[in-house]
Amino acid sequence: MSRQLITFELGDQSLGIDIMAIREIRAWSPATPLPNVPAHIRGVVNLRGVVLPVFDLRMRLGWGLTDPTTRHVIIVVRIGEQLQGVIVDAVNDIVTIRPEDMQPLPDVGSSQAAALLEGLATVDDRMILILDLDRLAPPLADAA
Prior knowledge:
Residues 2-142 form the CheW-like domain. The longest helix is centred in the middle third of the chain and has 4 residues, at 57-60. The chain has helices at 57-60, 133-136, 140-143; strands at 3-10, 13-18, 22-27, 41-47, 50-56, 73-79, 82-88, 90-97, 102-103, 117-123, 126-131. Strand 10 (117-123) and strand 11 (126-131) form a beta hairpin. The chain has a single domain (3-139), classed as CATH 2.40.50.180. It has 144 residues and is mainly beta.
């Protein structure tokens, strides 16, 4: 069965998240830092009365710290019962992935990024890394 992904950019990389997990895409707004949280947790923002944890996807994948600017966006995703924000460089488009378009990750040894990915897909000659949200953002109590 085909599935739809929202694709986005982190540096030169194209990544995708299942569209069913996405609640909204919003402009970057500074997060209020929290003490004693993992380095990839940038803090929290107020989303219409809901306190939303925001994490730096680039940092979570082990690709360095994002220095957010007004061009960055926050993708609000539902992981389990919690809404969380993910900082990305830019949102691209919606793509449909057929099962035959998905490929498993090659065995490249233990890698922090590979442990957070569901697989790869090729769409129009570009390689998209598919994020596994359940592995990407464990509950905050488990991430500390």
